[in-house]
Amino acid sequence: MKTHINQKRRSMLLGAASLSLLHRLPAQATPLDAATAMRAISGTTRTQAGRVRLDIPPLVENGNLVVMRVSVQSPMTESDYVKAVHVIAEANPLPNVFSAYLGPRAGRAEMTFRARLATTQRVWALAQMSDGSVWTGYADVLVTLAACTESP
């Protein structure tokens, strides 16, 4: 009976140690993960560069709170408007950072938001238009104090 309890205890301790080690490893996406996320958004539509502007400071001291601004050139009329804006960070644990869904009554396709950035990386913005086209823009940012990698 005592051997059975020791085996259960040993298994539980090994499992806890494994989880602890996994938790301490920083999770980080790759540019390939970001490309996959962008393909999931655009589907079979070929993305085009332009019409999307992503403003991020080129140097960020603390990745825990990064202010970003996305604007898309669009008349925002009933027949020509931005349907959605997505922001993808190449090196965050999860590449999808932000999504906003718009319609012609939004007036302007501009938004400012805050996000965490894990490390120095390229950040992409994708705009899905009402005509089915997908436009992109990007910004490179240098992060001196990484976020998303804290351990207890």
Explain what you see.
This protein is α+β, with helices and mostly antiparallel strands and 152 residues long. The chain has one domain: Immunoglobulin-like, CATH 2.60.40. Helices cover 23% and strands 39% of the residues. It contains 2 helices and 9 strands. The chain has helices at 2-24, 31-42, and strands at residues 47-49, 52-55, 59-62, 66-72, 82-89, 96-101, 110-115, 121-129, 134-145. Strands 1, 3, 5, 6, 8 and 9 form a 6-stranded mixed sheet that branches. A 3-stranded antiparallel sheet has the order 2-4-7, with no helix packed on it. It is globular, with a radius of gyration of 21 Å. Mean pLDDT is 85; it is low at 17-26.
Task: Give a quick precis of the structure.
The chain contains two helices and nine strands, in the order ααβββββββββ. By secondary structure, it is of the alpha+beta class.
The structure class reads alpha+beta
Shape: globular
Q: What is the tally of helical segments? A: 2
Beta-strand share of residues: 35-45%
Number of domains: 1
CATH secondary-structure class: Mainly Beta
Helix-strand sequence: HHEEEEEEEEE
Distance between the termini: 36 Å
**Average pLDDT number:** 85
Residue share in helices? Answer: 10-25%
Oligomer: single chain
Largest sheet: 6 strands, mixed
Total DSSP E strands: 9
Fourth CATH level, the homologous superfamily: SoxY domain
The CATH topology label is Immunoglobulin-like
At CATH's second level, what is the architecture?
Sandwich
How many whole angstroms does the radius of gyration measure?
21 Å
User: Would you identify the regions where 5 or more consecutive residues have pLDDT less than 50?
Assistant: 17-26
